[in-house]
Write a structure and sequence with these properties.
By secondary structure, the chain is mainly α. The chain folds into two domains: 48 residues, Recoverin, domain 1; 160 residues, EF-hand (Recoverin, domain 1), CATH 1.10.238. The chain is built from twelve helices and four strands. The strands form two sheets. The protein has a two-stranded antiparallel ribbon with strand order 1-2. The radius of gyration is 21 Å and the shape is elongated. The N and C termini lie far apart (42 Å).
């Protein structure tokens, strides 16, 4: 479909694909569908837009987990997550830019918050990054991630691993909720000690039985023994 390898679909490419697949839709109908996919109205369909429309909104289970994470971070319950809300929750002291003195911890935390805003602003072609994340922006960020995750259990484990929703903070003491300094052997050892090792006993196994396994499953349908979220399931 993406004939020019631009990682986007133009209206012409989309119409050509519809003809190639013999959908027998009129040009007007193709335009309506194209418009539905082009969420930010820039005249192109981005991959995230395409996946978002195909997969739709998060289901109620995933949305409830996401809202729970937002409420945990929104310490003062004012409806936004700001830098002050992250202090004591996310530790940026080991971030390379902080160590090198190029940025303050507050600047790093602010940039971290902007990651949740940027997708919402790009997707809907409006707004600007103000380092104040609303619930809508937070949900939109995880809706985009959710579209690439097939299994509800996998999504729940990811959220729990990120925000410690279960309250078991043991791995978080080890990671100190921040970045590991790569040149510090002690920190690298502590961080990697909770990760499963890739060895002969690990690796991927192809499944012929498509029934739910209760284990994290990659989009390829291959459950992984040495995938981090598999090990996370043992921790929480």
């Amino acid at each position: 479909m993406d004939d020019d390898n631009s990682k986007t679909l133009s209206r012409a490419e989309f119409e050509k694909a519809c003809r190639d697949f013999k959908t027998e839709m009129s040009s007007e109908d193709v335009g309506v569908i194209f418009y539905a996919f082009d969420l930010n109205r820039d005249g192109y369909i981005q991959y995230d837009e395409f996946l978002r429309v195909i997969r739709g909104e998060m289901n109620d289970y995933r949305r409830s987990i996401t809202v729970r994470a937002f409420q945990k971070l929104d310490k003062n319950s004012d409806g936004t997550i700001e830098v002050q809300d992250l202090i004591g929750v996310y530790n940026p002291s080991k971030h390379p830019s902080v160590i090198e003195g190029r940025k303050t911890q507050e600047q790093v935390l602010g940039e971290f918050l902007e990651t949740f805003e940027t997708h919402h602003n790009q997707m809907f072609n409006g707004g600007h990054n103000d380092q104040r994340v609303t619930e809508e922006e937070f949900i939109e960020y995880y809706t985009n991630i959710s579209a690439s995750i097939d299994d509800d259990m996998y999504f729940a484990q990811m959220m729990n691993s990120s925000w410690n929703l279960s309250g078991d903070a043991s791995p978080y003491h080890m990671y100190e909720r921040g970045w590991v300094q790569k040149d510090d052997p002690a920190q690298v050892s502590a961080a990697t000690s909770v990760r499963p090792q890739t060895a002969a006993a690990g690796g991927y196994q192809r499944r012929d039985d498509v029934r739910p396994t209760g284990l994290p499953t990659l989009r390829s349908g291959l459950p992984s023994r040495d995938f981090p979220f598999d090990y996370t399931q043992q921790l929480y």
